């Protein structure tokens, strides 16, 4: 099995133009927005729109001179029809800037809405990598969950019911001009959402740190967003893994611990910075069809899959998983690199358990008769499978799913 390495010593990041992080920093939004004009479209969901914190934020922004129009009908999993509806009812002449305040679906919605409002066209025409023809309206992202990292990324995942699957839109033109990351906004997250987003963040960190290194040339860097694991993505992944080591146990013990919320949100942002050029891999490819079948949250799905995907990938990533053990403080004394790598994997599993992530795929509602369908659909996500450090064919996908159904955490031979 070939272990890919970053022989070029390449470092590459794509990131928002301005990043503001810290408790209470949402109050800076009123001062920031006039730089892009006086009319803002705020995208959010019904839960957030009814929150007093949201109403207070809108009042601050309007008092500072920016007129706010709220679109509050964003749904989970981002149905294509919702994007088409907002494009039909509004146009670029009404707004100077788009502001996304919410979780991953809200942030992804606003990225695409900003493009459609400015340029028109059909959502399906944007599917794929580097297909978006040009810039949308300026976008400011304000995440309210600590997990997806979508505030930092230039990809949106849309559910297309005509295709019966989620489809990615990936382009540098989706990148935010600014992001405001305020951990106080996560204090109202219900327990299930906290678990799902934290598991998503941890999966992003592991998949980015262990992703395939592609050693791209100049033309490939220009043509592709996901150019593989590199020096700078590793830097962000390492930071995130160090943060979750202590943050997850503290968060599980006390969901009102603002310090734990802050560290978790910084880890999630770190993960978003890493996956924006390293990409995600097999856990994400397998989760998408599982989520469509079981209607379970994305973060819960990738978290439940991660232990089995890590075991599959171990032969090609012993060095990286051994470093994960070091970052998480679990390196066994006097052991081999293989022993350290296994300890790293086990430590990730322990963190998933700490935040309440289900231990197997049966807990998601997946059944044995679903395995073939999930394997077939997962392999269609070539953008994700191409990032996996170990080659993944249909037989491998079936074996991962079968082990995940059985909760079999023995080591692959």
UniProtKB/TrEMBL annotation:
Pfam families: ADH_Fe_C, Fe-ADH. Residues 16-183 form the Alcohol dehydrogenase iron-type/glycerol dehydrogenase GldA domain. The keyword Disulfide bond does not apply. Residues 221-403 form the Fe-containing alcohol dehydrogenase-like C-terminal domain. Keywords: Oxidoreductase. It comes from the Bacteria. The keyword Ribonucleoprotein does not apply. Belongs to the iron-containing alcohol dehydrogenase family. This is Iron-containing alcohol dehydrogenase. It comes from Nocardioides humi.
């Amino acid at each position: 099995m070939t272990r890919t390495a970053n022989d070029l010593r390449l470092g590459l990041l794509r990131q928002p133009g301005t990043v503001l992080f810290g408790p209470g920093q949402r109050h800076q939004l009123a001062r920031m927005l006039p730089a892009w004009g006086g009319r803002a479209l705020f995208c959010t969901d019904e839960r957030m729109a009814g929150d007093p914190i949201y109403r207070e934020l809108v009042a601050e922004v309007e008092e500072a001179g920016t007129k706010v129009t709220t679109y509050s009908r964003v749904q989970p999993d981002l149905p294509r029809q919702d994007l088409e509806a907002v494009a039909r009812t509004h146009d670029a002449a009404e707004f100077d800037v788009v502001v996304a305040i919410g979780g991953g679906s809200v942030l992804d919605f606003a990225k695409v809405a900003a493009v459609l409002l400015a340029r028109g066209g059909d959502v399906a025409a944007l599917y794929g990598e580097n297909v978006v023809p040009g810039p949308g309206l300026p976008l400011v992202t304000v995440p309210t969950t600590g997990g997806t990292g979508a505030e930092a990324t230039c990809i949106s995942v849309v559910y297309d019911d005509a295709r019966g699957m989620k489809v990615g839109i990936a382009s540098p033109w989706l990148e935010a001009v600014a992001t405001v990351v305020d951990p106080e906004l996560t204090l109202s997250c219900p327990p299930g959402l906290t678990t799902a987003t934290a598991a998503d963040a941890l999966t992003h960190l592991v998949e980015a740190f262990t992703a395939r290194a592609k050693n791209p040339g100049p033309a490939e860097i220009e043509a592709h967003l996901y150019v593989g694991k590199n020096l700078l993505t590793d830097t962000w992944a390492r930071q995130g893994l160090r943060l979750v080591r202590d943050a997850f146990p503290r968060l599980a013990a006390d969901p009102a611990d603002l310090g734990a919320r802050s560290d978790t949100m910084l880890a999630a942002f770190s993960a978003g910075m890493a996956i924006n050029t390293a990409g995600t891999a097999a856990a994400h490819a397998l989760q998408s069809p599982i989520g469509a079948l079981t209607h379970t949250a994305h973060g819960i799905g990738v978290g439940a899959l991660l232990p089995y995907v890590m075991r599959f990938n171990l032969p090609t990533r012993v060095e990286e998983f051994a470093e994960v053990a070091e970052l998480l403080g679990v390196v066994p004394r006097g052991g081999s690199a293989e022993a350290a790598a296994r300890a790293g994997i086990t430590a990730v599993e322990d963190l998933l358990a700490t935040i309440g992530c289900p231990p197997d795929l049966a807990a998601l509602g997946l059944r044995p008769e679903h395995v073939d369908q999930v394997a077939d659909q997962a392999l269609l996500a070539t953008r994700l499978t191409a990032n996996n450090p170990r080659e993944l064919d249909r037989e491998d996908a079936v074996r991962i799913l079968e082990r995940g159904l059985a909760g079999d955490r023995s080591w692959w031979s």
